[in-house]
Amino acid sequence: MELTAEQLRQFAEEGYLFLPDCFSEEEVAVLREEAERIYATNRPEVWREKTGAPRTAFAAHTYNEAFRLLGAHPRLIRPVEQVFGEKLYMHQFKINAKAAFEGDVWQWHQDYGTWARDDGMPEPRAMNIAVFMDEVMPINGPLMLIPKSHVYGVLEAGHDKETTSYPLWTLDKETVTRLVAQGGIVAPTGKPGSVLMFHGNLVHGSAPNITPYPRRIVYLTLCAVSNYIRKPTRPEWIAHRDFTPIEPVADSALRDYARARKAAAE
Ligand code: SIN
Ligand code: MN
After folding, report:
1. Residue nearest atom 4 in ligand 1 by C-alpha distance
2. Ligand nearest 199 Cα, by number?
């Protein structure tokens, strides 16, 4: 999958790109199944909401075959290589649940703010690329983005350790109001298998999910290899220290894995 000149221009200008229909239902179904198995475990990498519902599972690409294949999938790796013009390594990998009824807020923030402050990442040359596992709707806590907010560099932020179970460098109301006056807010919605990539400095957040519809999204944070982190302070499974360039798997790898699993179960 190669991005067109128009898509590259749109990404540079708006700070994000939405790519519907990247993965088939067959490919996404196996990811959903594996995500549920992971959420049911007691691993330290699985973080929960204050209610006990799953919030996020880190580093599943290191111990789960389906997510390993997703983490090296050419439909995700190639477009990001194209933007940065070099090979990539996995800085962070998380499966965010935004569980039905219980999925909590993600306050407004920039990811590169955290990567710079907590991990010592030199430049915002890492990209978030999100794969929708459920239908993301206006009502089930979609990710909200402030278009064009990526052009201001790292904004002042406060370290919120209270609101949710996930400490986050968050922006104040005045900053968000000023950015929204310029760029508005978008909340890309779409079917499972849709992909959303956004700049490390793009301001984003999401509201709680009080609907019966879960909103599970996998986020790969792909970092340019030359931009490896210099001063990590967080655990290895949150900010990875393996800077080996990712070699993409075959385009059919996830589909083949889903079929093999199904055949074995029959
Ligand atoms: C994030 O900003 O890292 C996650 C937000 C979300 O999944 O809603
Ligand atoms: Mn984020």
Report:
1. 106
2. 2
